[in-house]
Amino acid sequence: MQKKFLTAGLSAAILVGTLVSPLAVNDTQADIQQGDVQTAHAADTINSGQLAATLTRSASWQQNFIQQIAPLAQQYASYYGLYPSVMMAQAILESDWGRSTLAQAPNNNYFGIKGDYNGNKVNMPTKEWDGSKYITIDSYFRVYPDIATSFADNGNKLRNGLSWSPSYYSGTWRENTRSYRDATAWLQGRYATDKDYASKLNNLITTYNLDQYDGNNSADVSSPTHMVVRINKKPFASIYNEKGQIVYVRALSFNTDWQSDETVTMNGEQFYQVSTYEFVRAADVIRIK
Predict the structure, then answer these.
(1) What is the pLDDT of residues 230-249, one digit of tens each?
(2) CATH number, domain containing residue 250
(3) Running DSSP on this structure, what letter comes out for residue 213?
């Protein structure tokens, strides 16, 4: 039976930036339509107060936080066909382990999603990468009634995309990926402007063993070659698709390290693979492992 996903209700929210390449997609131009969350929350879902109470000064406070958000990530990532590990890593990174002002009640925004939620929003400064440097701008961010709704909205966003591109985040769907690394690679330059976004998510997943929450087939099933390459072209190296064509809204910044599972030859030129459908020219990188 084909699994059904929610398509109604939640809007095509503006996410934290898309610029990491010479041509940027401006989410503020998207047509935002608001609606109600149509997923039911369990009666015992955690709230902001419960999460805040776990953030003790003990050495294990990170693990306490992980244990608190894991059920939410598994619930909504499973529902939307995503990786719980990626959802958890995003929540950690975007909310600073639940300690950011945006993540705290009454905002409850754990994923830095911009726009408004049922008319509720808050204005805050945020850092964005403009292709050469970080700049600070003021933006409106969604305000949620509880943390569970924030996790549900993130899952809905990745599954249903933007109003003008429903498949915008299709590279994060489990059926389109071999491992969580494909999903994090797809998020860079699409979900966030941070030029090291995928690397930061991957580091969180490996450091805290978050892929244990992904269930069956959670392991990286890519080739055992596991080469590591470093972008050696300033200021960035272009990303190419499986046909050897430049993907104009995607690039990797100079000195970015990337795990590559294989090399391919397209149009007579060698490329290193950086995700399932994305490649960089061998001439633009150096292999460091």
Answers:
(1) 888 888 888 898 888 888 77
(2) 2.30.30.40
(3) G
Domain shared by 67 and 184, yes or no: yes
Name the residue among 126, 130, 113, 115 with its Cα closest to residue 23: 130
Give the C-alpha distances (Å, rounded to integers) separating 10 from 120, 197, 229, 240.
13, 25, 39, 32
CATH of the domain at 61: 1.10.530.10
Asked if residue 231 is part of any domain, the answer here is yes
DSSP per residue, 101-117: TTTSTTT--SS--BS-B
CA-to-CA dists, residue 76 to 24, 88, 90, 224, angstroms = 29, 11, 14, 31
Domain count, the chain: 2
Rounded Cα–Cα distance for residues 232 and 211 (Å): 30
- The pLDDT tens digits for 117-164 are 999 999 987 767 666 667 777 789 999 999 999 999 999 999 999 888
pLDDT in tens, 31-56: 233 333 333 333 334 454 555 454 44
- Region at 209 (left for phi over 0; alpha for psi -120 to 50; beta for the rest): left
Please name which of 210, 249, 254, 219 lies closest in space to residue 233, comparing C-alpha atoms.
Answer: 254
pTM of the model: 0.58
Task: Determine, yes or no, domain membership for 196.
Answer: yes
The CB density around residue 196, as the number of other CB atoms within 10 Å, is 18
Pair 165, 49 in one domain? yes
